[in-house]
Task: inverse folding
């Protein structure tokens, strides 16, 4: 099976050199998070992921989850691994100390989430869903709800699950039917069927806290009549001990392409007792707080799998002897050369690498802004950071999962037939990663969010949080006329011009006809994302070019420059195709007769 | 589960209108294959695929194959389906009447192969491997071997399997170790282990005929010391009845990502009795005869899955009500509009469609040339056709399977979460199709074949078989100045110029340094393939534009023009990115330090 080592060297580079992570400790509340503290945390997380979670990845896939009499069993080893995870404090790292959390900056937490996703994507969903529920509850729950539920969720003895989808409604939550009837004691009776509920039922925690979207009797139709409720699997007594079972049960688990060790449940609510979270009919707001956090987390799933698949492919490409280098045998003493000598194998490996490292940088940029948004003393700076996060959230969700799937497929291809059989675990990465392009809003929905909401918002205010720094950087570097950097700045500049022109086109055409924006959305998001990676690759190249040979005993910075070069020369050209497709407009798809499909 | 209807209307268009299939009957030996005969054959094949093979597709995936005491059982229903398949004469359609075949033109057979692959990819491998063995044996076997084995293989009561790969050798067959020791009676004792043997063992036929690559004792090292042997599972007596079991057995079956109903076997040969096929040490030649036929067949697998996935996605997109059209409710009477109203859903469906129909045209072009190569009275014309087939074989194998996987992924994405669960069968298409990018030479190997062998062959002679007709067509249409056709001819012309320039670059740089050709190979093959589709889409548009409304009661031709337009505007622009990546050269990948990966 492919092994996994957390890419700590690159994570430190991104956090401290690219994103200036030492600044974190200057933010109020983050004083203790200096490099001295962060480094060992990352190392401990790496150890757990490499030694506990990753060894269960393939066995978990083979065994899957089972449902018997309403009880879901996770695969062998999962309960024990979760216990170690919880006891190590990993459920609480990013949570508020007020509820027992460790208050770790998002910029650090994000790196740990990546490691967990690399090591075992199925496992990551159990704490991941709790983290999502934590966000909704901590932002919108009443003090009583927060005091009752959050400490146990933060500690990890209780977990969370989000109950949105129903058979007739996925993307369009306005169609949902689950009902909530108010009771005299201020609680509600919740009734309805929810599907595709990750971590809906399992054997890892003592209790499961469901956040459920439902309609009150007086609810307006559609999306504006949806409220959010907290429904515990076991009712909780005043002393925090568990009371009787609530009216919620798992009716079935789905058989899926991948993430088989993650239980995807049909959850039936039958007059289950619940409590309102936030205001009546304003459930979507509380849900979106969770959803935005989850979308970034799902992006990390794509990145995590890309990294893991890259590592598996490199290991195989170094070992597999097959054929000779086109420029003459590299290892004439061996029966053949390792396949890593072949240009086409290197193309695949470098594509994986350039995507993984570029996406890590983009995720770190967003994560740092999450910290600024929460902690910066200047409200203006907080607002700017919030805008930036809002803008890039759909990009990170869709781009990182699209590229993650591409990377996983390339990794499998490097192994040839050995990648297609289950033994090496490379095909599992493809299957596991594939869901990330779908859940928490399909990538098409992310693209519509970008072009339909984020671009037009406040006359492009959000967009400027990205366009201004990139534009200023290109201008500054062009003026400096740094010869060594020119090979990066020039293609970045070209891609950025394409992005600007496409933005103008999408805004103009979309204003006239929203279907034009819709037709451009997916290509536009990718153009945006690849340009963002080009900006980050240029900055990473700049940092690395400034290093002397003495600074670079292990060749880390030289490899960074080389990967940046590959990205610019071989991957960034995609932006020209995306630009042409966007500029062609949407008539060719909208004019197609429905009956003719 | 997604249902499947053979796209007979489009197949007839491609065969008779685009490829002038009526010409077939003018070829010696094909006199009877007029449209009157071909039409009912296609209809019968469609019926079998829709009603017998497709219903077993998902159950076959769920159940998979099992191995017990060396016996492989195919899933429930497979033996009965195979019996119907055989009794219907479908194993013999493309075979020589001299051995009981029906001698159907390849141009027709190819369409039937597509249907079988759409309906049940796993099933297709059993007759598919026999067809491959038939090609090697009928071209290189002695008369005695041919008389003994071919009639039963053609009849389908015996099947074939190709035994190439060993644990230490896949792409690089020069490393193979299986030994063949000559016996006094003119036979050989074959000993060695083969892996990844599709249809290596199963319960569909009475006997299995293995074609095995092995080394004779006096064999030169490497690829020039490999011979081909025929090894039957049961030895055959003089009266054609089965004798004792030969020394070959299935040691294990692989657990794979997909094609689970196809048994992928480890085959152990232990002093198995075999006979030489062709000359000693010239096994690769006989193997390549099979391999080229198989590569085209594997291309059809990609196309078949693309078509099936398209159909499944369209059906869902018509039925699934979710959200409202961006231009206002299309079905205000319903709770929501069907998702087919959304531009991004249409983008996915039209991409699938444009790829499937374009690839069908390309496959038909190759298939017709196979017929010309075999049947044309003029040797010059036969040679031209042979050149064309040699040139496009790697393109068809790689392009059709790459686009097949892309299409299958898009089809799954249209269904969202419902595509990721197994129920609808859409994720199975993704898993099944994925192997087609790998086996019979990975797509990277196909690309190297194109740039390393086919391009330079005889100073570009092969290439001219494609470049000349395309160039002449563009010139003629540009001169005619057909206003309606200009929107197709112009982008085709631009893509073709890119292809010509990239060809010159690859040839020039590759001559200096073969690694440059290797670095360009994958992008070049795709550029070639997308340009070929652009040529065919332009010709299909031309035919369709010439039709009046009266000619087009069902809107078939109008949809053809609309799909051609979508292809030109939204998909063909990829060629600009591929061109830039190719022109950037391979230094960025070859300079990367091996230790730095």
Result:
């Amino acid at each position: 099976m492919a092994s996994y080592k957390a890419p700590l060297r690159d994570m430190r580079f991104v956090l401290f050199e690219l994103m200036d992570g030492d600044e974190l400790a200057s933010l109020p509340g983050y004083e203790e998070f200096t490099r001295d503290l962060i480094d060992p945390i990352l190392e401990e997380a790496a150890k757990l992921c490499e030694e506990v979670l990753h060894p269960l990845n393939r066995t978990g896939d083979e065994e899957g989850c089972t449902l018997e009499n309403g009880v879901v069993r996770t695969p062998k080893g999962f309960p024990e691994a979760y216990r170690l995870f919880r006891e190590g404090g990993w459920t609480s790292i990013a949570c508020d100390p007020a509820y027992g959390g460790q208050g770790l900056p998002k910029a650090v937490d994000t790196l740990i989430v990546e490691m967990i996703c690399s090591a075992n994507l199925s496992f990551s969903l159990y704490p991941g869903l709790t983290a999502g529920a934590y966000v909704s509850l901590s932002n919108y729950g009443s003090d009583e709800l927060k005091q009752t539920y959050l400490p146990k969720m933060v500690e990890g003895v209780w977990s969370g699950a989000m109950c949105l989808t129903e058979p007739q409604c996925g993307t369009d939550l306005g169609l949902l039917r689950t009902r909530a009837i108010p009771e005299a004691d201020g609680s509600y009776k919740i009734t309805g069927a929810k599907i595709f509920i990750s971590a809906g039922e399992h054997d890892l925690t003592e209790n499961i806290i469901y956040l459920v979207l439902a309609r009150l009797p007086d609810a307006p139709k559609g999306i504006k009549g949806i409220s959010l409720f907290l429904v515990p699997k076991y009712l909780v007594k005043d002393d925090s001990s568990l009371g009787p079972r609530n009216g919620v049960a798992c009716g079935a688990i789905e058989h899926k392409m991948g993430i088989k060790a993650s239980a995807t449940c049909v959850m039936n609510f039958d007059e289950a007792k619940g409590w309102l979270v936030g205001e009546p009919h304003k459930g979507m707001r509380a849900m979106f707080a969770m959803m935005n956090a989850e979308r970034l987390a799902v992006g990390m799933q794509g990145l995590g799998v890309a990294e893991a698949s890259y590592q598996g492919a490199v290991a195989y490409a170094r070992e597999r002897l097959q054929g000779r280098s086109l420029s003459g045998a590299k290892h004439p003493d061996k029966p053949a050369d390792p396949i890593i000598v072949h240009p086409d194998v290197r193309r695949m490996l470098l594509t994986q690498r350039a995507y993984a490292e570029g996406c890590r940088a983009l995720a770190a940029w967003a994560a740092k802004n999450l910290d600024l948004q929460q902690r910066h003393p200047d409200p203006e700076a907080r607002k700017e950071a919030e805008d930036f996060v809002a803008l890039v959230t759909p990009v990170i969700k869709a781009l990182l999962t699209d590229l993650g799937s591409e990377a996983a497929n390339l990794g499998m291809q490097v192994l040839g037939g050995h990648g297609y059989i289950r033994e090496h675990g490379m095909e599992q990465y493809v299957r596991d990663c594939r869901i990330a392009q779908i859940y928490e809003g399909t990538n098409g929905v992310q693209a519509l969010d970008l072009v339909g909401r984020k671009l037009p918002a406040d006359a492009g205010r959000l967009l400027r949080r990205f366009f201004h720094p990139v534009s200023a950087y290109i201008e500054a570097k062009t003026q400096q006329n740094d010869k060594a950097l020119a090979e990066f700045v020039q293609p970045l500049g070209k891609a950025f011009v394409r992005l600007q022109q496409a933005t103008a086109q999408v805004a103009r055409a979309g204003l006239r006809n929203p279907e034009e924006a819709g037709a451009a959305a997916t290509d536009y998001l990718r153009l945006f994302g690849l340009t963002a990676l080009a900006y980050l690759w240029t900055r990473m190249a700049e940092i690395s070019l400034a290093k002397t040979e003495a600074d670079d005993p292990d060749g880390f910075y030289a490899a960074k420059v080389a990967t940046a070069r590959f990205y610019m020369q071989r991957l960034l050209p995609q932006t020209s195709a995306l630009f042409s497709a966007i500029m062609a407009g949407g008539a060719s798809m909208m004019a197609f007769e429905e009956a003719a499909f």
User: Anything to note?
Assistant: The CA atoms of residues 452 and 514 of chain A lie 8 Å apart.
